[in-house]
Amino acid sequence: MASPRTITIVALSVAxxxxxxxxxxxxxxxxLSRDAYNEMKRAYKSYVRALPMLKxxxxxxxxxxxxxGALEVACGIVMTLVPGRPKDVANFLLLxxxxxxxxxxxxxxxxxxxxxxxxxxxxxxxxxxxxxRQPEEQPPEKRILSVNGDEQPLINEAAAEKGKxxxx
Length: 168
Hints:
Blueprint: H1 4-28, H2 34-50, H3 52-56, H4 61-81, H5 85-108, H6 112-133, E1 143-147, E2 150-154, H7 157-162
Antiparallel strand pairs: 1-2
Helix pairs in contact: 1-4, 1-6, 2-4, 4-5, 5-6
């Protein structure tokens, strides 16, 4: 049976991956929701206006929106389908992306309700990354002592030493 840690990581990976595939798709095409797509277009225009440095670098609102959307879709697919280390890389990239989006929202002065989802999903990405990077707990090994043909489990030396008090 899978450990609770594994179940948590898989559940968070799939849920976060599907969310970012959905949000990235909304940024790329109006097929899912024309209203949400138009709202994204408007929001990214305000982000580029608020950061004139982007305009000087030749980054238009369309390029910014489509590049962020494509990165969200790609990382979301990796989070959902690809096993192993690439999930952690995708998780980290999405976390950086969420931080950038939070910066954009603060820059243009959006109210909390406009970026609360980014805060929540940033926290979830952080939790998933922390859980995934923790080492798996190994059960203590059991040693068997054979005495007169009877097998008896040996207590782990560390556990035996744990209960003893040092006297000097």
